[in-house]
Amino acid sequence: xxxxxxxxxxxxxxxxxxxxxxxxxxxxxxxxxxxxxxxxxxxxxxxxxxxxxxxxxxxxxxxxxxxxxxxxxxxxxxxxxxxxxxxxxxxxxxxxxxxxxxxxxxxxxxxxxxxxxxxxxxxxxxxxxxxxxxxxxxxxxxxxxxxxxxxxxxxxxxxxxxxxxxxxxxxxxxxxxxxxxxxxxxxxxxxxxxxxxxxxxxxxxxxxxxxxxxxxxxxxxxxxxxxxxxxxxxxxxxxxxxxxxxxxxxxxxxxxxxxxxxxxxxxxxxxxxxxxxxxxxxxxxxxxxxxxxxxxxxxxxxxxxxxxxxxxxxxxxxxxxxxxxxxxxxxxxxxxxxxxxxxxxxxxxxxxxxxxxxxxxxxxxxxxxxxxxxxxxxxxxxxxxxxxxxxxxxxxxxxxxxxxxxxx
Length: 408
What we know:
Layout: H1 3-35, H2 40-43, E1 53-55, E2 57-58, E3 67-73, E4 79-96, E5 109-112, E6 117-118, E7 126-129, E8 132-141, E9 144-161, E10 164-171, E11 177-178, E12 180-182, H3 187-196, H4 198-229, H5 235-244, H6 250-264, H7 281-292, H8 296-304, H9 309-320, H10 322-338, H11 341-346, H12 357-367, H13 372-406
Antiparallel strand pairs: 1-12, 2-3, 3-4, 3-11, 4-5, 4-9, 6-8, 7-8, 8-9, 9-10
Helix pairs in contact: 3-13, 4-7, 4-10, 10-13, 12-13
């Protein structure tokens, strides 16, 4: 085998393995999206289906409403599409008796109790099977009357053949296979929005996220440039102290930060969700490390030409640091969009004016507990925007990683 063939087979195997892992990773996302387009009853269907569907119905003369279709196996053994006309019919599963008086479990039939009568006249006829007494009934089967016993009692539905209305079959509705067709229900998203005011929560989340991203980029760029290029007493010590705040767990900051919000009067207010997060040591560190990689000769040439520090920052450093800015913006967007614990602490659940998407989803989980399709529709509303942002900014993120690896 030639080297090219071996290389092609190796590449094909790698792509096949990566494709399998991609499908595994995407499957939960696909389940969420497709389930959000189902009806509530379709989410509990068995066996479960990935694609959304709806029950096929048929209009028949003599019936006021459309009748649902099922795949029913007739007594002849043939499977047909039949319409359900009546449910919850009390019936018995009867088994005929062989010449020795033993029941034949292979030839059972289903009949209404109103269609059968006790054998033996008024006194009734009984037989003893396995030490237990069972009444004997006269049941019509294949045009003949045969003696049978009741194996079990249950409720079934009556089905008719649309092509031949005289043909009827009794079958268990729950165990029958409905005739389905693929049908999406995007109105679930409108119902979720109208149910809890998701439009307000979505607007609040988008505004908070946008302002947080802009604020962190602004402060990180200024702080990163100051620590990377400006010389002032204690610069390195201040930077190390500021960088050390990354190691402080958020749970340690919750109580003093909440007390500060109470003192300022920002509890249950939108500023409490924005202003505390406009400064980030991680963003400052990221931008400083990127600004260090920019050659000093470019900055010195600009200073000789009379450019100010602000001009150097806006015309040289910021355009050159687009990958780093995209990385910072992506991380900040994901954190601000998915923030749950701090909004839960500082904003009351009943305050719909300052409610964010994560809190609305938490409330939706309780109110729509019997409708998984609505819960997953709300989850899709919360998941799809950050997913799209990450996909669109992925190129810049990879460029930032690769550029930081080759510059030193």
